[in-house]
Amino acid sequence: MKKAKCLAIVLSLFSAAPAWAGGSASPAPVPEVEESDVAVLPPAGAHWMFAYFSFRNLAQLIDGDTGKQLGGVHIAQLSNIAFSPDKKHIYVAETIWSKGNRGTRQDMITVYDGRTLKLDHEIPLPGRLLAGDRLNTFSISADGRYAYVYDMAPASSVIVVDLEKRKVLPPVEIPGCALAFAAGNTGVVSVCGDGSLAVISHAGGKAEVTQTAPFFDAGEDPVYDNSVFDAKSGKGYLLSYSGRVYEVTAGSGSGAQIAQPWSLQEGAHMPRAETKPLVVNWLPGGQQPVAYDAATGRLYVLMHKGEFWSYKEAGEELWEVDVATHKVLRRAALDKPAMSVAVSQDKEPLLFLAEPGGAIHIWDAATLSEKASAASMGPSHFVVAP
Amino acid sequence: MTSQSRTERFVRKLARGTSRRSILSRIGLGLVSAPVFPLLPVERAHAAKDRSVQAKTSFARHAQTTDDTKCDYWRYCAIDGSLCTCCGGGIHTCPPGTEASPTSWVGTCINPDDGKAYLIAYRDCCGTADCGQCYCDNTDRGNQVYRPQENNDIIWCFGASSMEYHCSTAVMVGAAE
Amino acid sequence: MNRSGVAWLGILPAGAAMAVAMTAAAGTPRITTAQSDYVEHCAGCHGISGSSAPAPVPELRDRVGYFMCNGEARDYLIRLPNVAHAPIRDSGELADLMNFVVFSIGGKSVPDGAQPYQAEEVARLRAEPLRPGAALLARRRQLVGDLIRTCDAPADLQEFYAGQAPESREQQDSRAGA
Q1: B165, CA 20 to 30 Å: which among A186, A261, A293, B119?
Q2: Which domain of life does the protein's organism represent (chain A) (predicted)?
Q3: Average pLDDT in the C9-29 region?
């Protein structure tokens, strides 16, 4: 049967031969009904986001309005990913070895075109910290000119990268501190082991570092590495295991201001949670437990009922908090526990919630109702379009 | 890597966590923000170092001392990753084809048999792909990367000839003082 | 371990002692508070025996004692952020820890006549830690240079561990941010 069909095709080709034998253009040897091509993305939408799992190699680009996958970017395990503020480029901070699990280590920022997702160029790095599930070991300045990479070699430093000149500037040592939250155009905030912040300002080409007074107890009630910081406004919110929120303002000039902390539980008319053992409280938890909508001043926090030291427990509820009044505005029960939350930065914000198994729920933030869903490859993190 | 299995273990672990939580919720019904068990009037210098029986975490109260291939084995109070006991290794033994990292981080876990705290070195076995078996993520007294010596998300393969993570062991060092 | 270990088992109820004997905890030697603090806060990176070579971490065993050779280097050990900020609030306890590190782990590298750290000294120094922005690596290089020149410290004290091939100055400078 198959043979007969093949023969029929060959015959039909022969019979077509005279038609092109005398032509001047040389037509395709086999007529093609469809051509293989490669899609190009439209300009990035405000509801686009990357979902990725630290131990898989594809960051999925997903349109939040539909839940559809638009494309993907290759990432090494334990990578960071970011959009440029103009959305024209995608940056991946990653580490590979020349022979896979061995050989020469190479650290780099791999730059992709935002429309074709094709490799544009690479910027070699002197190193970077390898840790799972970390968002704030890499960030981009508000104007998109600089990238900041946290390195622990094991001495701590922030590597400042000039993305325009494709050049690494001398690393800035931050003994006793870690992380690199971009603040403004030339500022970086790091968190220190004594409960203070280090603030780097590299305006004018020379890096200056200041340190705040200690303001949280890093041993008793640590703040999450995956707290939130808005580079444009220079405002960030550090969230502690017990649900204390520290508002940080930095990025204009040197130093940082830290407001009096407030309690998520008190915002929901409960006594503030303490760090004492054997006490059940509503507590934040998960791997990306908090998201910040800079335009509305709302925090979205994954909360679970549990005891202290349960800081990675998935959320049972999503709390919406007003940073101006410190009030919990709404509490939404989650059908399935969520490990990560993110919020789009536009006038009609969407919330992204990731289940441990990889299912993604996309909610309309105005109504807290599900709008779309998607699938990812594990307990994913989100990076939303700027 | 076999992150499919990591994911499955993760989900299974979550299921376990959820049931534990619902038990908690039942016990703690109407007691949110109130002690589950009566608290003894003990002055605590700092919770992170408190090793008294009264300070037992949920993990320590439910831990067992017989099966080191399960996430609730007492020494695993702050382990994050695949258990080497499920990967061809042992509680302090790396599986064939891997290398014990010369660096680690050290946690303290309470042995339920004697109620005492012990120093446990969480030492990663490095050099080949993620084992993918028996994935656990326990968090007693775990901290963030600005306190790296107390963080279980860092790939603790510094000094190994390959930084590729395979599994984690829980090596007994001694009784914590 | 024997004497203190037996005494320790002796105060447990018989049932508990049986249980201990059957667990991995059995036979665990009793260690001092300074040893316990060292293991809990330092040994992960520096190694339980004071060496984690070839990890890029300063090897302490038979090396850290050289820092007691002059006042600046002695102060530097306490002003290191992970020492100054160690979650040990009592400076006497921290002094005990650092004396264990220097005199026990440092072994033969301790100069004759070196005096142990005192609680007040540690309290004063830890209040002035090396802060973010301090050129820690360059500072170490300068101090170790002095120790090599004036205190008979080996040239490889500039490297992380004994026998490590010297890094090129260019690499060191780029890492130090110089």
Answers
A1: B119
A2: Bacteria
A3: 43
The CATH code of the domain at A42-384 is 2.130.10.10
Is B105 a residue of the active site? yes
CB A213 within 8 A of CB B167: no
The per-residue b/e assignment along C143-159, b for 16 or more CB within 10 angstroms, e otherwise, is: bbeebbeebebeebbbb
Q: How close, in Å, is residue A244 to chain C by CA atoms?
A: 21
pLDDT at position B54: 59
Mean pLDDT of the residues in chain C = 83
Q: In this complex, is the C-beta atom of C87 within 8 Å of any C-beta atom belonging to chain B?
A: yes
> String of b and e for A235-265 (b: at least 16 CB within 10 Å)?
bbbbbbbbbbbbbbbbbeeeebebeebbbbb
Average pLDDT of C7-12?
A: 32
Q: What is the CATH number of domain C38-176?
A: 1.10.760.10
Q: Around Cβ C124, how many Cβ atoms within 10 Å? A: 13
**Amino acid letter for position C148:** I
pLDDT of residue A232 exceeding 70, the answer is: yes
A25-34, B134-143, C83-92: the lowest-pLDDT one: A25-34
Q: Do C131 and A175 touch (CB under 8 A)?
A: yes
Give the pLDDT mean for A375-382: 94
Q: What per-residue confidence (pLDDT) applies to A145?
A: 98
Task: Give how far the C-alpha of residue A312 lies from the chain's centroid of Cα atoms, to the nearest Å.
Answer: 18
Residues 69-108 of B with CB under 8 A from A: 80
